[in-house]
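Entry details:
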Amino acid sequence: MLQTGAEVAASQGFTQLRGRRVAVCCNPSSLVRAERPPYRRHHLVDAMRQAGVNVTRLFGPEHGLWSTAQDLIAVDAGVDPVFGLEVGTLYGRTVDTLTLEPDALTGIDVLVFDIQDVGSRYYTYAATLCMALETCAQVGVDVVVFDRPNPLGGEVVEGNAVARKFKSFVGWIDVPQRHGLTIGEIAKFYAAEQGLQSQLTVVPCTHWDPAKYLDEQDFASAGSTWYAPSPNMPTVATAVTYPGTCLIEGTRLSEGRGTTRPFELIGAGWLNARQYAEAIERFAIPGLHVRPMQFEPTFQKFAGEVCGGVAVEVVDRRAFPAVKAGLALIAAARQLGPKQFGWRTETYEFVSDRLAIDLLMGNTQARQVLEAGGTLEDATSDFDRDSRIFAERARAHLLYTRRSGLFADGLRRTGRLPL
């Protein structure tokens, strides 16, 4: 049965944390299942306290400790009413608040990080972890990461590198948009590439199969470990589309926020649903099916307005190129409404001098190709090269064996993985 790093640590009584002053960066996804039926789930902080761990401080990432804040909404520090502990915010009103301040670690021996990632570069929890690693290295605080499965599996890599000019909170780590790493592997990869001298310990998952999506894993009768890690990431199916449909944030199209299917409903008040679906289908994206839809967001873009658009359905996950599909959604909308379509120009993740779509893509290539009427192949021509370079860089930091895909290719060349 698959166990997360937190569950492995819990089964061992959190012995590596006993007698130490512990801070925890967590959110509602930081759950620990009991080892025996009925497999009740408890929050990590409760589990640690019950085991006698001295939890003295908490930190909340974007969306806050309980994921109550929507995207781009600042979260204040304070005292948590559930745990009665001081909570520091790592997503406040200024860009400085994204970085863990050294003073916030006064009296702390070890920082524990346990939050579900979704396998996409833009998802900011990995950036929060990596920025915290830098501060902990600076002040000599140890870091323990309780690893969790990448819900998209660990064998598919898709996307391009992040150019230095476009480094941001949604592109803090130079990995492709779909990177194939777990949060623990990202921590090892980042610490090594940055030369961080912090004492980093990753507690791996057990029985995680990188060839499978999270909802295909062997949980026996314990049920999935999935719990929405942010307000608009309700299901694994949402995470499957997200590496592509998050790109809609860089446009004036609705990405489905304010509906029950965020990142799976895409549209705009000016779009004709059927024409939009037909335009997308002409791109013949493998594994993608879109249905004409009408939907009305309750907040954010087109709030209170009926949008014409599509329901994004992935009918073959293993064939589905998510990032390319996201660009197809954008290209089709531009073709149907060149005057109505627009890129998002407002400040995005504290950046106001570069377009959001360029921050998400990591460079200007895709946008400029689409603006010039170029093909999706031209827009994504850097994907193969950049993905292969990344796989070579990351391979030494993998915690779990991949038997197919770019990570496995290098292992076969070196004889470390049989043909």
